[in-house]
TrEMBL record, chain A:
One of the Pfam families matching this protein, by short name: FecR
Domain of life of the native organism: Bacteria
Designated name of the protein: FecR protein
Residue ranges of domain LamG-like jellyroll fold in the record: 368-499
Keyword tags: Disulfide bond, Membrane, Signal, Transmembrane, Transmembrane helix
Gene3D superfamilies: 2.60.120.1440, 2.60.120.200
Gene Ontology molecular-function annotations: sigma factor antagonist activity
SUPFAM superfamilies linked: Concanavalin A-like lectins/glucanases (SSF49899)
InterPro entries: ConA-like_dom_sf, FecR, Ferrdict_sens_TM, LamG-like
Transmembrane segments: 89-108
Source organism of the structure: Stieleria bergensis
TrEMBL record, chain B:
Record protein name field: ECF RNA polymerase sigma factor SigD
Origin species: Stieleria bergensis
Pfam families given in the database record: Sigma70_r2, Sigma70_r4_2
Secretion signal, residue range per the UniProt entry: none
Family: Belongs to the sigma-70 factor family. ECF subfamily.
Gene3D superfamilies linked to this entry: 1.10.1740.10, Winged helix-like DNA-binding domain superfamily/Winged helix DNA-binding domain
Domain RNA polymerase sigma-70 region: start-end pairs: 25-87
Origin organism lineage: Bacteria, Pseudomonadati, Planctomycetota, Planctomycetia, Pirellulales
PANTHER family, A to Z: RNA POLYMERASE ECF-TYPE SIGMA FACTO, RNA POLYMERASE SIGMA FACTOR
InterPro entries cross-referenced by the UniProt entry: RNA_pol_sigma-70-like (IPR039425), RNA_pol_sigma-70_dom (IPR014284), RNA_pol_sigma70_ECF_RHOBA (IPR014331), RNA_pol_sigma70_r2 (IPR007627), RNA_pol_sigma70_r4_t2 (IPR013249), RNA_pol_sigma_r2 (IPR013325), RNA_pol_sigma_r3/r4-like (IPR013324), WH-like_DNA-bd_sf (IPR036388)
GO terms, biological process: DNA-templated transcription initiation
Length: 515, 181
């Protein structure tokens, strides 16, 4: 291909076709070409910086009010001579950096609470914000930051929102959702997912959808409105569903739903349809309850334990120094979902903005022994995806993933530099939680699924790792991204025994039955 | 593991970090501008790299060049950006991102001289060329928008812009050749 400066510029501005971009990468394989490209990129970067700085300085001298630069440029002499100017710029950059560093230090302090919501006085409200996780709420198209919600049309564009209506009714909304707050006992859900927990004082709380009206009789239920259909899922208690649009409702056609029942009402269809309850779909509270499973894990003294709570403080670890970040990109839903138990989980891919998790300051793995326990939930058609890894090129020592056939496998790098891989014989089931454990005891690398040993292979002691970044649901190169959820990930510097793994799984089963 | 950085006081550490970052920033910026196309995206990524370098400064091994470490972190953050942004057209392979980092690290020597030469070369540009650059780099107009502004076509705007850049690149080369002579 013929590459001139004009073409390189177009590449740098992203103004090329996919084919051209691919061809260009071949062209770059020649070292001189790569050097030429790097210099041109440097020119772009320097031009942006220099011209912007000149403009800011010009504005300041013209009597502009940009306070940031008036300190840096105090006289025309400085502007005339490039050397003092660059020193001034240096000073300016230093100030900005020191500020950034201060912000940063404040930023990395472990924080256990969610965003406090400012409690402004406001007009008569029908609901109040209890908490939110990265929530972006708009009212009639403008951002709404008040903790009180008056009557109106709302849209939750991002994140999760916990509202309290009259009588202590707790409502959890997941973005994207559009709803109207009508009064203290009524909300209209136009689209999206909502869960309600209704105490006795809140009985009669009603959720209206385009296809039905759901009246609660003291219970916990969720409503999902999407694409001309409404679904009602009842987790506890009793609700009455009146099918039909608001002016076509016929009380005689109402249906009562009890715990563990669910219904779909489709626009235009005469009869509601029974469906199975989706216990894994809805976020029904934001708390990570104190669970027996978590206690059982902690009794085994993990190095780091990631319970994947619903928080916007990143990937929370116990202990907090091993916390990381939740990676996000474009996507409809938040990077959290209902977890294996009552709390949350890390949602990666599918329809969410989640891209996995990263821990930059992970614990050292230096005893030669190792265990990793996790719950995984896979959505099709994932292939070649990482559960957890710190392998990157020559660095790192463990990798748990699924291969191109969706078979679970674990790879361990040993002291002698060799890599041992073990794989389960069968495909990992989809859309269901699976308990996965990998252990290395210096003699064997072993793999457990749902409490049972499913594969074992000889393996020397694990090589030590120091500060290699941990990745959850992705890897360093973002090539093996999970589609689904990960929960309750724990790492140990010893090999858990077969009995310990079986006991953990039993505790998990009891927990699932209980919640 | 005990590192030198741990024995320093916080403010000393911060000062040292600032010094290291100021030296490495042009290389990191060039690297990110090479791999991420829109200004704001590129600047966001650079910002994130700076934050991460500050946070992980304790891990830095002072026996290695800071630029190499910074570019190593930069590579991961560029991959993060690709991961988050599905629409990005030019996505370099990880191998290429690694080679690019090596190339940019190797070009570090003349970088500050090239920057200084650029400042002088900008002064020599005819006002019309300067205006064109300002529209692109300061006012952030796209080629289409610039074409409207200047009563031209986006194709010829791109050609003109490229020519101005090439004029600047030759000017920088000439000045450095004179200095080194």
């Amino acid at each position: 291909m013929s590459v001139d400066d004009g073409f390189i510029d177009r590449i740098l501005e992203g103004a090329v076709s996919d084919e051209e971009a691919v061809e260009f990468q071949t062209w770059l394989k020649v070292p001189e070409n790569l050097e030429r490209f790097a210099l041109r990129a440097e020119l772009h970067s320097d031009l942006r910086r220099s011209l912007r700085r000149r403009q800011i300085q010009k504005n300041a001298l013209d009597g502009g009010t940009d306070g940031l630069v008036t300190d840096a440029v105090s006289s025309r002499e400085q502007l005339a001579s490039p050397i003092p100017r660059s020193r001034q710029l240096l000073a300016l950059t230093v100030t900005a950096l020191v500020m950034a560093a201060c912000i940063l230090i404040a930023f990395v302090q472990p924080e256990s609470n969610r965003d406090p919501v400012p409690a402004y006085a406001s007009v008569a409200s029908v609901a109040s914000v209890v908490s939110h996780v990265s929530g972006v709420l708009t009212k009639d198209g403008s951002t709404w930051n008040d903790a009180q919600l008056p009557v109106g049309n709302y849209e939750l564009k991002k994140g999760l929102l916990n509202l309290q209506f009259g009588g202590g009714v707790m409502v959890y909304v997941e973005a994207p959702a559009r709803f109207d707050a009508v009064n203290e006992k009524r909300v209209v859900l136009h689209s999206g997912r909502l869960s309600a927990n209704v105490p006795p004082q809140g009985i009669g709380f009603t959720v209206e959808t385009p296809e039905a009206e759901v009246v609660d009789f003291g219970t916990e239920f969720s409503v999902d409105v999407e694409g001309g259909a409404s679904e009602v899922h009842v987790f506890d208690g009793l609700v009455r569903v009146h099918p039909g649009a608001s002016n076509w409702r016929d009380a005689s056609r109402s249906v009562e739903l009890q715990a563990s029942q669910a219904l779909r009402i489709t626009d235009g269809a005469t009869e509601p349809e029974d469906i199975s309850i989706a216990t894994d779909r809805f976020i029904r509270n934001f708390d990570e309850p104190r669970l027996n499973y978590a206690r059982a894990v902690k009794r085994l003294s993990p190095l780091a334990y990631y319970r994947m709570p619903i928080r916007d403080r990143g990937l929370v670890s116990e202990p907090p120094e091993y916390s990381g970040v939740v990676l996000t990109g474009e996507g409809k839903r938040p990077p959290h979902a209902k977890g294996v138990f009552a709390g949350g989980s890390l949602r990666v891919g599918v329809d969410s903005s989640g891209r996995g998790g990263r821990v930059d300051s992970p614990p050292r793995l230096s005893t030669g022994r190792f265990s990793l326990t996790a719950f995984v939930y896979l959505e099709p058609p994932t292939r070649n995806a990482s559960v957890a890894t710190n392998l990157e090129g020559e660095r790192g020592n463990f990798d748990v993933s699924i291969d191109e056939n969706a078979v679970l496998k674990a790879t361990i790098r040993s002291n002698d530099g060799a890599a041992s891989t073990i794989a389960r014989g069968s495909v990992l089931p989809q859309k269901t939680w699976r308990h996965v454990v990998v252990t290395v005891d210096g003699q064997y690398l072993q793999l457990y699924e749902d409490g049972k040993l499913v594969a074992s292979t000889p393996c020397a002691a694990m090589a030590a790792s120091d500060s290699e970044t941990f990745w959850f649901g992705t890897d360093a190169e973002a090539t093996r991204v999970w589609d689904g959820r990960l929960d309750e990930v724990a790492l140990f510097n010893r090999a858990l025994t077969e009995e310990e793994v079986a006991a953990l799984y039993r505790t998990a089963q009891e927990e699932i039955a209980r919640t | 593991m005990f590192t030198w950085a741990e024995s320093m006081k916080e403010d000393q550490k911060r000062e040292l970090f600032t010094e290291c970052w100021l030296k490495a920033e042009p290389a990191v910026s060039a690297y990110v501008f090479a791999s991420v196309s829109r200004f704001h995206d590129a600047e966001d990524v650079v910002q994130r790299i700076a934050q991460e370098l500050a946070r992980r400064f304790d891990e830095f091994d002072f026996n290695r060049p800071f630029v190499a470490w910074a570019l190593w972190i930069a590579k991961s953050r560029v991959i993060d950006f690709y991961r988050a942004e599905h629409r990005t057209r030019v996505v370099f392979s990880h191998e290429l991102l690694g080679q690019l980092a090596d190339t940019i690290a190797a070009q570090a020597d003349g970088r500050s001289n090239r920057r200084e030469a650029l400042e002088a070369c900008l002064e020599e540009l005819p006002p019309k060329s300067r205006r064109l650059l300002d529209l692109r780099y300061v006012e952030e107009l796209s080629a289409d928008e610039m074409a409207q502004e200047t009563g031209s076509t986006s194709g010829s705007v791109r050609v003109l812009l490229s020519r101005v850049r090439t004029v600047l690149a030759s000017c920088i080369e000439r000045r450095l050749a004179v200095e080194n002579a």
